[in-house]
Write a structure and sequence with these properties.
- The chain is mostly helical.
- The chain folds into 2 domains: about 90 residues, no CATH class; about 120 residues, Four Helix Bundle (Hemerythrin (Met), subunit A) (Up-down Bundle).
- It is built from 9 helices and no strands.
- Helix 1 packs antiparallel against helix 4, helix 6 packs across helix 8 and helix 7 packs antiparallel against helix 8.
- The protein is elongated and about 75 Å long.
- It starts with 12 loop residues before the first helix and ends with a helix.
Amino acid sequence: MVSNQYGEWDETLSEYLSRLASDCPSLPDLEGDPNHQMAVDHIDGLMGSMISARESIQAVDYSDIEAAINAANPRFLREQFDYQYTQRVLAEVPRFVERTLRLSSLVGTGRAASPRLQVYVREATRCYVFGLWTAAVALCRTAVEYAVRERLRDHLGQGSQALGTMIEGARRFKVLDRLQADLAMRVKVNGDRAVHGDSISDAIAWDTLVATRGLLEQLHA
């Protein structure tokens, strides 16, 4: 990395590492072989499929292939998975940064947020930053449900109630004002869409996260 006359970097760390990583072959032992690129493309595709098979239900069973690879070279899968993830993450870092810059700090100078609520909102925010739209919206819904339930405990006790019912109750008991109840209901509706299989876009995830963070900030002001 080289800095300019103002002491600023000419490239970010992720750009620098991406440039270095682009020069790192996934199959260094085959460099110079006329079939090198074909082998790289095949291995990259296979490794991607094996990673996908660990993330969700797939129609292909890779266990025999993995067993054969491990028998030939016990480090091969570890090294290739590391290569795949490193390349993917470095490519996404600029988008992680841009999404983080869209957010402001969450400030709560009044009633302290519970540790569990802090976990929900932190993980919802991280899912948004990492581009996991459905997970972000589902966790936003969880955060709002937990926050509303906490505020209603003195009125409704420990009983379980649907989120929509709790939001209406919170408004009736003046635990939430109209604007806060509207924010909570917006999160509930989008959260229901997420958990029931609707497609969630980045715009919906952003709208839901903003509503969640705005509501929680008001509740802890």
